[in-house]
Specification:
The chain is mostly helical. It has one domain. It is elongated. 83% of the residues lie in helices and 0% in strands. The chain is built from 6 helices and no strands.
């Protein structure tokens, strides 16, 4: 009887590849992509109401949907680590500018543009994160 040499599948395969600490790192790394649009929605709702909040959060979500494949393609061409690092820095700046614009009372078109920029630069931690950080 011969033993199969295929890699384990499912969760065992993930833990075999990434180690037991992978969920401890992956969960907080993915939180910004999920919670940033919700936080934007709540922040703007308190100032301008749900209509404006929905529009700005939609711009952020749309930016994420458009920016994800662009960042993925750039990572395939230039490497995961440099693209992920640039995306992290650009996203931090865009989010800072968005929050400052909301607190500063800028008009809705400015908020929409900044939200789209923040969405376009969301780091794609899921597909890129582990491969650029593993030894």
């Amino acid at each position: 009887m011969s033993r199969s040499t295929t890699a384990p599948s499912g969760f065992r395969g993930v833990f075999a590849l990434g180690g037991a600490a992978l969920p401890l790192h992956a969960f907080p790394a993915r939180l910004p992509a999920a919670l940033c649009p919700v936080g934007t929605l709540m922040l703007i709702n308190t100032r301008d109401g749900i209509g404006a909040a929905g529009a700005v959060a939609s711009a952020l979500w749309l930016g994420q949907a458009i920016g994800g494949p662009v960042i993925g393609r750039a990572a395939d061409r230039r490497g995961h680590r440099p693209v992920l690092l640039v995306a992290c820095g650009a996203n931090a700046l865009a989010l800072f500018a968005l929050v400052a614009a909301v607190l500063g009372g800028l008009p809705r078109p400015a908020l929409l543009a900044l939200a789209a920029a923040a969405g376009l630069t969301v780091p794609q931690v899921g597909p890129l994160g582990w491969s650029c950080c593993s030894p």
